[in-house]
């Protein structure tokens, strides 16, 4: 059969039309008013046609749907547009170079929202006090306190208001159409995020040392999400204003000129951020909203009272909340496996404890070099790779010999297997395992001395027997994220030539993982970004990038 073809044609555009009127007025010798009013009109659209041949090509090398062996199935077509009319204004009142008040507001009308609720207004206000202008503090060059209140509105994705049928390939002379598996909603409201922020910015010792601290809290209401409705609705998902989420945290930035000697300088910058969030509300009677469902039986969810992005799956069973309960999976193998909960539990969360970065920049005459170390501490992910990999014995820690010098893949009777510790599940007189009210194994605390079986797919660690929690890993990493070096050609070379200079540089990214807590894989090698994270499958080794940069200065 000749090669088949798949064709995807995608067109996207976004156009913005801006009209602004600025004003700047000294009201007296200490008071200045600066402002702006205007409008922003945004138009965007996407058009996608996706089709393929049926049964391959009649003539090889002629890539046309009319060259299909059989009649092609109907192409999938998407044609969506968005129009947003925005009206905005801003005013800044400055008093004597130390006190500033900034007020702004925007009013948007969006085509992706219902006509009765298609407009939303969001204001903001910022007050700044430059206290270094009021007080003479030894060593301080600049000191600023800022307070900020802001609301930010957001409309719905394109074409989420009215349910439509999808046209399929005709059956003979009969036209076929199917209802969507996601229900749309003609009563959607705009999303709104309200934030409060306080910050301090300070510079010391002729700007050789700087410190910037920000504390914030932000609450998002009326999030537009596709939730799982009752099965009687006839759809898998339904778009609704589903949730309320609160974020709060702290951001720190410290920078310093560590050394300045002649033509040589060394500058360093450290960033650190910690965010904590909580799901406060969900629509209707929902206690949890499923962000994604994955192979292996795990889900990523937003659950009321928990941090956004909880990983749900089967967990270990614990004796007195400490030691893991183990039991015999079958008489034929004789080894032990971990007990697992009868229902899904929260076994991780995608949110990190904190993130940070450390940049060092070195300059000598016309040469500049910099290095960035990137850090994520905490957060979790589920690995489908080890879920199946441990079940098929592809990892090195399931080969070789055990503590007794016996090949681990030998039978338990011959001394094989690996020690898995834990305490034995309790049994009654006929050898049946005792379960608690939730269907989980019970234990009297007797220490286990029997190894876990490794010899085939029925081992203790893979998909057949292990709880999902065994394959949830800490996503901590420290990476050498970027190295760069550049050379600025002497400015004397360009006198009278119409531009000021040329910089030539090379840059490399993702050079090394300096530290990580997860085995076998890069913690960042997930299947998705955005809201659906915390899941790995078929993870590839990290890719290093090398680039050349030439900058012309005019």
Characterise the protein shown here.
- The chain starts with 5 loop residues before the first strand and ends with a strand.
- The longest helix has 9 residues, at 384-392.
- Helix content is 2%, strand content 54%.
- Among the domains are: 1-88, no CATH class; 97-164 and 182-254 and 272-286, no CATH class.
- The protein has one helix at residues 384-392, and strands spanning 6-26, 31-52, 54-57, 68-70, 76-95, 99-110, 119-129, 140-154, 166-167, 177-178, 182-183, 191-204, 209-227, 237-261, 264-282, 288-294, 298-303, 310-313, 318-319, 323-327, 337-338, 345-349, 354-364, 367-377, 380-383, 423-425, 443-447, 472-474, 477-488, 501-516, 535-536, 545-553.
- By secondary structure, the protein is mostly beta strands.
- It has a 16-stranded mixed beta sheet that branches. Strands 19, 20, 21, 26 and 27 form a 5-stranded mixed beta sheet that branches.
Radius of gyration: 31 Å
Largest sheet: 16 strands, mixed
Distance between the termini: 59 Å
Question: How many distinct helices?
Answer: 1
- Estimate the strand proportion: over 45%
DSSP strand tally:
32
Shape from CA axes?
A: globular
Note the main attributes of this structure.
single chain; 554 residues; mainly beta; 16-stranded mixed sheet; globular
């Amino acid at each position: 059969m000749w090669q088949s073809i798949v064709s995807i044609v995608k067109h996207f555009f976004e156009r913005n039309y801006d009209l602004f009127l600025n004003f700047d007025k000294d009201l007296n010798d200490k008071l200045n008013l600066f402002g702006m009013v205007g409008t922003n009109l945004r138009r965007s659209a996407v058009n996608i046609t996706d089709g393929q041949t049926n049964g391959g090509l009649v003539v090889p090398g002629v890539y046309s749907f009319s060259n299909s062996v059989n009649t092609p199935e109907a192409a999938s077509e998407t044609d969506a547009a968005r129009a947003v009319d925005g009206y905005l204004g801003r005013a800044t009142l400055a008093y004597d170079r130390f006190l500033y008040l900034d007020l702004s507001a925007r009013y948007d009308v969006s085509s992706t929202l219902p006509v009765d609720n298609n407009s939303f207004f969001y204001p903001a206000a910022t007050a700044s006090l430059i206290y270094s202008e009021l007080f003479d503090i030894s060593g301080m060059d600049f000191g600023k306190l800022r307070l900020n209140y802001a609301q930010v509105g957001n409309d719905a994705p394109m074409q989420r208001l009215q349910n439509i049928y999808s046209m399929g390939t005709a059956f003979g002379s009969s036209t076929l159409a199917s209802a969507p598996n996601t229900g749309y909603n003609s009563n959607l409201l705009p999303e709104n995020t309200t934030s409060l922020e306080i910050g301090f910015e300070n510079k010391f010792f002729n700007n050789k040392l700087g410190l910037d601290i920000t504390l914030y809290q932000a609450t998002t209401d009326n999030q537009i999400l596709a939730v799982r409705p009752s099965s009687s609705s006839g759809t898998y998902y339904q778009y609704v204003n589903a949730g309320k989420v609160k974020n709060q945290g702290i951001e720190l930035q410290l920078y310093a000129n560590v050394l300045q000697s002649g033509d040589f300088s060394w500058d360093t910058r450290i960033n650190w951020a910690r965010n904590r969030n909580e799901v406060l509300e969900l629509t209707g009677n929902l206690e949890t909203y499923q962000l994604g469902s994955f192979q292996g039986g795990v889900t990523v969810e937003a659950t009321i009272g928990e941090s956004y992005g909880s990983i749900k799956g089967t967990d270990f069973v614990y004796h007195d909340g400490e030691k893991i309960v183990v039991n015999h999976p079958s008489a034929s193998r004789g080894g032990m496996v971990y007990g697992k909960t009868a229902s899904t539990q929260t076994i991780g969360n995608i949110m990190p404890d904190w993130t940070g970065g450390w940049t060092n920049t070195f300059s000598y005459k016309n040469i500049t070099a910099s290095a960035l170390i990137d850090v994520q501490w905490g957060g979790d992910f589920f690995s489908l790779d080890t879920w199946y990999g441990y079940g098929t014995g592809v990892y090195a820690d399931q080969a070789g010999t055990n503590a007794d010098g016996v090949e681990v893949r030998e039978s338990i009777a011959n001394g094989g297997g690996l020690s898995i510790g834990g305490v034995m599940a309790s049994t009654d007189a006929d050898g049946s395992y005792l379960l608690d009210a939730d269907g989980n194994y019970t234990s009297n605390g007797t220490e286990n001395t029997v190894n876990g079986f490794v010899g085939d797919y029925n081992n203790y660690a893979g998909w057949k027997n292990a709880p999902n929690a065994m394959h949830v890993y800490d996503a901590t990493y420290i990476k050498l994220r970027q190295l760069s070096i550049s050379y600025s050609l002497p400015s004397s070379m360009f006198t009278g030539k119409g531009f000021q200079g040329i910089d030539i540089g090379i840059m490399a990214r993702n050079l090394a993982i300096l530290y990580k807590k997860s085995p076998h894989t890069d913690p960042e090698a997930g299947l998705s970004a955005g809201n659906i994270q915390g899941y790995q499958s078929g993870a590839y080794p990290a890719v290093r990038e090398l680039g050349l940069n030439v900058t012309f200065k005019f």
